[in-house]
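Throughout our pipeline, every protein is held as a single compact record rather than as scattered files. The record that follows is passed on verbatim for readers who wish to inspect the format.
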Amino acid sequence: MDEGLKNELQKQGVFTTTLEDIYNWGRKNSVWPLQFGLACCAIEMIATSMARYDLARFGAEVFRPSPRQADLMIVAGTVTKKMAPQVVRLYNQMPEPKYVIAMGACAISGGPFKQGYNVLKGIDRYIPVDVHIPGCPPRPEALLHAFMTLQQKIADQQLTGVNRPRHLQVDAPSEFTVPKFGEHDLEPSSNPAVWQAPALVR
């Protein structure tokens, strides 16, 4: 519908929309985060849900204690290789549609522990990440900005066509391989459906 006509109708008290807009509006305003934290970034995540920053304004009122009731995983903190299988397992237990925010330098790339033998160099090696938040640790305002970015991403999703989200694609995976402890490292070292090592150009 033409925007001019839509504005004129709104002046008369007639509001028009589409099924897609209503569907995405409902989803973006009722995102339920999973209640778990890994390291110091979790303190900033907790502060974001308190009265001063009030994440509840955005529809994330309750941090759910079970992955079966949550649709947003905030990976807040350092992901050690011992913890990585549990994070992937929790992600697999979440119902679709589900989203991931990687909060802090450690969750994105390993942070100051990147060269350590026991820290995963980014959770996006095993599960798809929708929004990355840089910082060590990022402030609550950064998490609020990431949350609004995720809401905008949800609002722009199409229900049909080639650009429809993953949960509406029949052949797209909903669960990913949970890594196991191998002789020297996690096996597999990454999930090829999500992450592939960049090619070196010399």
